[in-house]
Specification:
Elements: H1 8-21, H2 28-34, H3 46-67, H4 73-83, H5 86-96, H6 106-110, H7 117-135, H8 137-154, H9 164-174, E1 181-188, E2 195-202, E3 207-213, H10 216-234
Antiparallel strand pairs: 1-2, 2-3
Helix pairs in contact: 2-7, 3-4, 3-7, 3-8, 5-7, 7-8, 9-10
Amino acid sequence: MVPFRPDSRHETRLQALQSRLGYRFGDPLLLARALTHRSFGAEHNERLEFLGDAVLSLAVSGLLYERFSGSDEGDLTRVRAHLVREDSLHRVALQLGLPEVLRMSEGEARGGGAQRASILADAVEAIIGGVFLDGGFAPAAEVVRTLFGEIIQATEAESWTKDAKTELQEWLQARRFSVPAYRIVATRGQAHAQTFEVECAVAALGLAERGEGKSRRNAEQEAARRLLEALKKSDKPGGPLRS
């Protein structure tokens, strides 16, 4: 490990980071490694990241299990995936001030590495892995509660429902149909206030529906929702897909 001798300013930032985490490392070298990118040296944070990923998943699962006793496995899995994905971890990293304390090569730093979402997300997982090694699962789970508890408490189960495009694709794949095709049919209005009309089609079934929205994505979601509704009706006993 590269000798870890932070100057007074860096030491102050590390102390502030541990205060935000709600955990103080007994072994400062674990924190140093968690904050070390592979470009800095051989003793980097990737192994801690691997460990932290598993600890984070288990700790978040426990929090969700407590918070939403009536939700099924599918809902819990979806919200967990949302919470532990890169962009969510990136936001946590920024709140923790990680760009100020990461160690990386000068070249990586000049290239904006300290602001790169993937590097910051990995560092969050590495820190959680470091806490696990330093103090065990209970302290690591408390750090996860500190970082994610508030957003979990503010989350409503209804917000976990799949978006229409995802649900449509899964519906089709479960029945061995190809994924739908989307195309813009029309664009209306001025550039700053456009309305998009999009068609969603399943060629194998000869079905298509259209949707409108203020963005292409919203129009695709509306078209997918309408097509899914039509498919579900057709899939009922006596419908075209069951004949």
